[in-house]
Amino acid sequence: MPEIVAILQGNQRAGARMIRLLEQGKLEALTLLKQLYPHSGNAFIIGITGSPGVGKSTLIDDLITVFRKQSKRVAVIAVDPSSPFSGGAILGDRLRMQRHATDKNVFIRSMASRGQTGGLSRATKDAAIVMDAMGYDIILIETVGAGQGEFDIATLAHSTGIVRIPGTGDGIQAVKAGILETGDVYIVNKCDRPDVDASVHALTMMIGMQNMGRQTSHPSPKWTPPVVKTNALKGTGVDELADTFLSHFDFLKKHNLTDQTKRNQETLYFKSLLKDLTLAKIHSFMETSPAYKSVLKRIQTHEMDPISAAEHVVNTMIILK
Mind spelling out the 3-state secondary structure of the chain? Predict the structure, then answer.
């Protein structure tokens, strides 16, 4: 198909159209995605997460520059929070990366979270497949920035960077809440602040304690998450950060962990799609089935309790299928 060929050739307009259809939940988009899927699986996916205001967008903007100097093609998915009224997004993250707008080897796509929990849009994984098939070497994914709830990125990215800033008090609290389990690289941004060393020391200590707990129960090779100091506005530490991400990817490949990571990611993606497609079938049944409307009337007149009614509708759907 012409659209598929254009995407595989790296055509950004074709890629943007495809991602828009996926965001809208169009069935034809899933048909096209099935054709693109065999051409994916080559990109290095980096997730960048952290609370609002820590400088994620500026940091990604700097990382694009560093990776482009290394002649790598870079794509970005910036997930912005949705308006609770219109469902749209401000898409401010994309505005912060406009200096790369004329670079044909950089593709930046903003996506609205549309109320999804976990800091990611429902179609983020789909968009990553499209960008991967387009031939981008590195895909950077920026999450909404909802703080402690952002764990979904760890199921999508090969390497997850968690951005904190010193002096706010939320960095260590978030680590205590369990986010330490999801980070591969810890970034203390705005390192010109006076208490940056204390924040780095606290993170390093907690990472060390976590690794001690893993040694007896997990004998396989383990990556020790480093703590990198950066100042995104000045570009300080960004070269080191980029090299750290690439080192983590090399570590995964060296110890044959990329295949296991991919298997885990594909299982989670399959389960997510299964839930979405099943829910779509249920909505379609509710809109068109006389059996559903009949049961609904019986609930409203108290002829049937809601529990029995739900069980009846599910059984009816199974029989019809």
Answer: CHHHHHHHCCCHHHHHHHHHHHHCCCHHHHHHHHHHHHHCCCCEEEEEEECCCCCHHHHHHHHHHHHHHCCCCEEEEEEECECCCCCCECCHHHHCCHHHCCCCCEEEEEEECCCCHHHCCCCHHHHHHHHHHCCCCEEEEECCCCHHHCCHHHHCCCEEEEEECCCCCHHHHHHHCCHHHCCCEEEECCCCCCCHHHHHHHHHHHHHHHHHHHHCCCCCCCCCCCEEECECCCCECHHHHHHHHHHHHHHHHHCCCHHHHHHHHHHHHHHHHHHHHHHHHHHHHHHHCHHHHHHHHHHHCCCCCHHHHHHHHHHHHHHHC
